[in-house]
Design a protein that fits this description.
The structure holds two protein chains of two kinds. Chain A is 61% helix and 8% strand. Among the domains of chain A are: 49 residues; 79 residues, Arc Repressor Mutant, subunit A (Orthogonal Bundle), CATH 1.10.10. In chain A, 7% of the residues are buried. In chain A, strands 1-2 form a two-stranded antiparallel sheet. Chain A contains five helices and two strands, in the order ααααββα. By secondary structure, chain A is mostly helical. Chain B is mainly α. Chain B has one domain. In chain B, 62% of the residues lie in helices and 0% in strands. Chain B contains three helices and no strands. The relative contact order of chain B is 0.14. The chains are: A mainly alpha, B mainly alpha. The interface between A and B is medium-sized, with 13 and 16 residues.
């Protein structure tokens, strides 16, 4: 293709313009991330302030109610999140997967749906990953061990992906034959 | 002490917290009544300090109870008359109770000063 001298951009300028555009794009991305982090920081600060207030109240209450009991105040417990009462996640998983049986869903999509229904919000990806690995997936595996759910490989988007579904009652071959015979009989007796 | 296990023992803890709140309210009412009496020599100086401590404890306990059960109506807890039990036998006269109360308030204040 023949190019005129007026339209041809010198290589150096072209590279510089490209770099400027790229850095601008990166900067815009960083600005967005900064805004998100600012929002997260404000939320964390507010939560921390509230927790400090509660901690002071609890310690003061402890001095009122304790009668000479020595309590180690430096201990830390990583308590479970309280979401809709005890067993809420298990109940939700059972109800949701039984309702959509025999269809299956990936653990990630299931977690998205659960978080939406329980109005859970994670402020960092690490926090979300921690909940997924330590609580959500563990609960799916526990239900699998109990024979409530099963894991299936489904071909989606050009590859096999692991999905979860409600484990229906197993039908034996003999039962299937029996059903087929009954259906055939009905067809024969039809006038 | 297994800290996590205590989180499930709700009823006993709730009763104790509410009883403590009711007692604190009763004690505060006693102190405020005493402070409000006319006459210069009736209300000793320790009482005002004690009132402040009681108010702080009351606020702390209310926060704790709200944390325990957000739906609990903390303001609905009435003042209890059971708090003077800590000062001796039942049916103590007002003057005797006030005397013992002041002694305790003074000893508490000196303990706090001594530990600092």
């Amino acid at each position: 293709m023949r190019q005129t001298a007026q339209t041809k951009t010198p290589a150096t300028e072209k590279w510089l313009l490209n770099e400027i555009a790229r850095i601008k794009g990166e900067q815009a991305k960083l600005d967005t991330q900064r805004d998100v982090l600012k929002e997260q920081l404000a939320h964390i600060e507010a939560l921390r302030k509230e927790h400090t207030r509660m901690l002071q109240a609890l310690k003061a209450t402890l001095t009122v109610v304790s009668k000479g009991t020595t309590v180690e105040l430096s201990r830390v417990v990583r308590a479970h999140r309280e979401i809709g009462g005890r067993g809420a996640l298990v109940d939700w998983l059972k109800a949701h997967l039984e309702g959509m049986s025999p269809k299956s869903l990936s653990a990630e999509i299931l977690m998205d749906r659960f978080c939406e229904s329980a109005r859970m919000r994670f402020w960092t990806d690490a926090e979300r990953d921690e909940y997924f690995n330590n609580t959500f997936r563990s609960q799916l595996r526990r239900l699998k061990r109990q024979g409530v759910l099963e894991q299936v490989e489904v071909y989606v988007g050009g590859r096999y992906r692991s999905q979860w579904r409600w484990r229906s009652a197993t039908v034996t071959l003999a039962q299937l034959r029996e059903k087929a015979d009954l259906a055939a009989e009905r067809e024969q007796t039809w006038p | 002490m297994a800290l996590t296990m205590t989180r499930t023992r709700t009823q006993t803890a709730l009763i104790q917290l509410v009883e403590t709140l009711a007692n604190l309210k009763g004690e505060l009412a006693f102190v405020e009544e005493w402070l409000a009496e006319p006459g210069e020599h009736n209300a000793p100086a320790e009482l005002a300090a004690r009132r402040q401590v009681l108010l702080e404890q009351l606020a702390a306990l209310e926060t704790t109870l709200r944390l325990f059960d957000p739906e609990l109506e903390v303001s609905g807890v009435a003042a209890s008359e059971g708090w003077p039990r800590a000062f001796g036998r039942k049916g103590l006269s007002t003057n005797a109770l006030r005397r013992r109360y002041l002694q305790k308030a003074a000893s508490d204040a000196s303990t706090v000063t001594g530990t600092r």
